[in-house]
């Protein structure tokens, strides 16, 4: 009788254990209420800390969330009416410095002189303050006439004809003392003199991804696209250095970064083609530092999205060595999925690689113009 009772007791315990909530089965570390910023262009919020769990919401880049728990690289967050779990590596926890309000823009060092100026770039970003870290308030087109109100180093405080004020780079404004200003077309220095390091991913014995339909090797696509990009940039006056010059070379990740830093690159572009077990398509642009890399990533992604034809999956935070350890502005671009038959059929062609190279070159030109 005692043995029977023991078995019954054991069965009851097992049943109770199976009915416990999910969070009891997985160790969860309580966290102090911490604020964090979303670093992905679109971050899924899930019902449980698992990629298999149901998606209950989505957060855009820059959204500030509150973290209440952490478990195995996942963070339980809340934002407005949304509560759930997100991949922790897409969050940047706030520091005291980040949670304080930014100081107001420094006052200009020159009073309004009545001078006018004309925008000489195709698209010039007007910002709240004199610096690339300041919020963009408007994008000014070529030929826009501005009232110059003041100056701080290489920045001008300006006012538009509609009364909106902000700061722009003085490099891309032609100043005139007369109210009649003739737009100067094609005078933006753009890529001329810029040092660009292009990194064709993989190489040598490391072929990278392999296409499922045509068995296309990623390392060769990376190299072919990089050479096309190098040619386009050199035609526009840039100084271009490649981290490898043939399919047989296989520099280490540290060596690739060393080239970027030794050359004091104005931009580092790592070229890749993607793979996935899911039927994913399109391009993806990665950055690591939101201050050093994000502006470059924005411009490159815009070039790919507007000119390439394949769908863009936007911007994403990427904890990659060539980005994380790189002191220079750097991005890593994935230019299509070799594991998707339709993508592979397109990206293996020379015409697509030409378009991709042109889109990246245009994105770089836009980045340096602003």
The end-to-end distance, rounded to whole angstroms, is 84 Å
Largest sheet: 6 strands, mixed
What are the low-pLDDT stretches, counting only 5+ consecutive residues below 50? Answer: 18-31, 96-113, 177-188
Secondary-structure element order, N to C? HHEEEEEEEHEEEEEEEEHEHEEHEHEHH
- Strand coverage percent: 25-35%
CATH superfamily of the largest domain: Zn-dependent exopeptidases
CATH topology of the largest domain: Aminopeptidase
Morphology call: globular
Number of strands: 20
**Order of strands across the widest beta sheet?**
16-15-17-20-18-19
> How many DSSP helices?
9
Q: Mean pLDDT, as a whole number?
A: 81
The figure for the number of domains is 3
* Level-2 CATH architecture of the largest domain: 3-Layer(aba) Sandwich
Give me the Rg, rounded: 26 Å
Instruction: Identify the CATH class of the largest domain.
Output: Alpha Beta
GO cellular component, one term: outer membrane-bounded periplasmic space
Protein name: N-acetylmuramoyl-L-alanine amidase
GO molecular function, one term: N-acetylmuramoyl-L-alanine amidase activity
InterPro entries: MurNAc-LAA_cat, N-acetylmuramoyl-L-ala_amidase, N-acetylmuramoyl_amidase_3, SH3-like_bac-type
3D architecture notes:
By secondary structure, the chain is an alpha+beta fold. It has three domains: about 25-95, SH3 Domains (SH3 type barrels); about 115-175, SH3 Domains (SH3 type barrels, Roll); about 195-370, Zn-dependent exopeptidases (Aminopeptidase, 3-Layer(aba) Sandwich), CATH 3.40.630.40. About 25% of the residues lie in helices and about 30% in strands. It contains nine helices and 20 strands. A six-stranded mixed beta sheet has the order 16-15-17-20-18-19, sandwiched between helices. Strand 12 (about 155-160) and strand 13 form a beta hairpin. Helix 4 crosses helix 9 (about 350-370) and helix 6 (about 295-305) packs across helix 9 (about 350-370). The radius of gyration is 26 Å and the shape is globular. The chain starts with a helix and ends with a helix. The model is unreliable at about 20-30, about 95-115 and about 175-190 (pLDDT under 50).
């Amino acid at each position: 009788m005692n043995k029977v009772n023991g078995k019954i007791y054991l069965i009851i315990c097992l049943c109770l254990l199976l009915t416990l909530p999910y969070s009891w089965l997985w160790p969860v570390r309580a966290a102090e209420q911490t604020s964090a910023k979303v670093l992905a262009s679109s971050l899924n919020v899930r019902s449980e800390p698992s990629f298999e769990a149901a998606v209950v919401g989505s957060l855009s880049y820059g959204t500030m969330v509150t973290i209440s728990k952490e478990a195995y690289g996942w963070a339980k967050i809340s934002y407005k009416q949304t509560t759930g779990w997100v991949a922790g590596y897409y969050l940047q926890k706030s520091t005291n410095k980040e949670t304080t309000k930014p100081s107001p823009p420094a006052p200009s060092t020159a009073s309004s002189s009545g001078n006018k100026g004309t925008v000489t770039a195709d698209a010039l970003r007007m910002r709240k303050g004199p610096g690339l870290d300041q919020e963009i308030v408007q994008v000014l087109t070529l030929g826009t006439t501005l009232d110059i109100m003041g100056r701080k180093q290489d920045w001008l405080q300006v006012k538009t004809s509609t009364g909106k004020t902000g700061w722009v780079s003085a490099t891309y404004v032609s100043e005139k003392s007369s109210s009649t200003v003739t737009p100067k077309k094609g005078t933006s220095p753009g890529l001329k003199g810029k040092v660009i390091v292009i990194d064709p991913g993989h190489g040598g014995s490391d072929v990278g991804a392999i296409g499922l339909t045509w068995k296309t090797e990623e390392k060769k696509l990376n190299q072919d696209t990089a050479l096309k990009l190098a040619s386009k940039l050199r035609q526009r006056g840039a100084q271009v250095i490649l981290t490898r010059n043939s399919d047989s070379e296989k520099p280490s990740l540290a060596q690739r970064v060393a080239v970027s830093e030794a050359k004091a690159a104005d931009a580092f572009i790592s070229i890749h083609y993607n793979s996935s077990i899911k039927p994913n398509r399109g391009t993806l642009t990665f950055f690591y530092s939101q201050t050093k890399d994000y502006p470059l990533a924005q411009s490159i992604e815009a070039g790919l999205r507007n000119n390439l034809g394949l769908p863009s999956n936007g911007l994403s935070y990427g904890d990659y060595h060539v980005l994380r350890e790189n002191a220079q502005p750097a991005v890593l671009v994935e230019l299509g999925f070799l594991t998707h038959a339709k993508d592979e059929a397109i990206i293996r062609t020379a015409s697509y690689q030409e378009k991709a190279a042109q889109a990246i070159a245009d994105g770089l030109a836009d980045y340096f113009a602003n």
